[in-house]
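for ur thesis appendix - Bile acid:sodium symporter. copy paste whatever u need, i formatted it the way the template wanted (i think)
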Amino acid sequence: MGYLRRLGIDGYMMLLVAMVLLGALLPARGMAAEVLHFATYWAVALLFFVYGAKLDPASVRAGLLNWRLQGLTLGATFVLFPVLGLGLAAVFGGVLGPEMTTGLLFLSLLPSTVQSSIAFTSIAGGNIPAAICAASLSNMVGVVLTPALVSLVLHRDGGGVSADAVIKIGEQIVLPFVAGQLVRPWIGAFIRRHKLLTMIVDRGSILLIVYSAFSAGTVAGLWSHVPASRLLLLFGVIAVFLALAFAAMAAAGRGLRLPGPDRSALFFCGSTKSLASGLPIASALFPAASVGAIILPTMIYHISQLLLCSIIAQRIARHVQISSPGAAGRG
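the 3d part is after this line
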């Protein structure tokens, strides 16, 4: 287990994989599926309520003063990534099939991770306040911008997002988030003190969504329609996506001569994608039977980014210790 932890593989990551396998081998059917759908809906609402209640607007305002880093992070998340996604979809879409291609485009439109990107920035000795702001702002913007971009991109491909899906996003995600922000002065301190409770809500909701999505996909015949060769190709495409994202963020940090700590924050906030935000949005936007295939690229990207970012963050930290203790975050 110690070796796996050094590689960035923890119990939560193994639980994610277990939920995929459980959904494939023992999918919920009939009444059980209806109960699961109901539970997942309210778990998502609770998740975004907690996000709203624990996000301090003051930290976001303070981090905005570093406008160059924030602009680069938002540009990478909502401009560079969609362009890369459209390019990869154009090249590989005919082989991946419509649902996985939609999933690849959906992945490219998601906001940055919050906990992971901040944790990796911290390990690398980067600018933690700026990372908190960048990740938080990305997710606040993404709650509204991601569904809008999905609608724009899918209309481009002849699809679209229905009015019912937009209303569901508002009811299930935006309203709980706003409600959490409104009651934050009264419950924010309680939520920050009880980190175990918020972690259970956060990770428990994601595990529930993963099982629900892959369970519905299995019932709809997901695995019978996805040959092993297509899955292998998807892994390869995601590897290319990650490599391009990492290279772009590293080049931007060096090319613009950002300080070392800011480069680390840009690298980890600009190259990661949020599974926590992506799964609820996908479950609200897409039919239950197709969600499993659509979120598959996001699942693969998420697990891959955790592994690789963990290794990179530790290498940066070791490089900083060897070179000069005062150059935290240089890498």
